[in-house]
Amino acid sequence: MLIVLPPSEGKYAARRGAPLDLAGLSFAGVPGVSEARGRVLDALVDLCASDPEGAASTLGLGPTQLDLVALDASLRTAPTARADRVYTGVLYDALGAATLSAAAKRRAGTRLAVTSSLFGLVRPADRIPAYRLSGDATLPGLGPVAGVWREALGPAVSEAVGDGLLVDLRSTMYAAFWRPPADVARRVATVRVLHEVGGKRQVVSHFNKATKGRIVRALLEDGGNPRSPGRLADLLTDLGWKVEVGAPTPKGTQLDVVVTEV
Q1: How many domains does the chain divide into?
Q2: Phi-psi region of 236 (alpha: psi -120 to 50; beta: other; left: phi over 0)
Q3: DSSP calls for 21-50
Q4: Model confidence over 181-232: pLDDT tens digits?
């Protein structure tokens, strides 16, 4: 089973640590991945170092956020930390990677991957610097970063998931980086969290992110390895969630997890 997470907008910036080593990241040996990482990194660093104000506009930052532009300008030499520490926010707080049991941490190392606009796909133990680059960004000389990754990520995802189940927890923005081919879609489960109040259901960002983090934590602690969306729904039900299974689609099978409180 492979669980693919979205990145977080907020990130922890390490104060000390070795600089970025692209060759040391997971999937570096997959054809096209390292080359794409280098292209995106070069375009981002060059823009931020040569034109800070233009970079701020490109990255959707305000005039008081030039420190984030400087952060990106120094990516080649900035200290790195484990990806599961760099990514922060509601989902990652709920996941609580640092407090997982020893067995769950081992599972996380092989079952989790984070979609990244800068690195494509990273594992929890990969050492990366904090950065600012949204999945919908378009960089000078490069174009949309999503387009770069659509061309490069397929083999990396295929290698990571093998013949197992892919649990896709990416947000819509990052889902554009890779879409499952027909032969893989039947093994893809997407998860939507619905908040139910007074018989009415809606998607609420905080509930969605927090619940997904708790789901990932529970799956890692449980250790089960479902091999189909239906089996995943059964396991989540056993773990205490209310789950409704949708019909298979070209993107996978959607599981609706219905919650009444966060």
Answers
A1: 1
A2: alpha
A3: -GGGSTTTTSTTHHHHHHHHHHHHHHHHHH
A4: 988 999 999 999 998 888 888 888 888 999 999 999 999 999 999 999 999 9
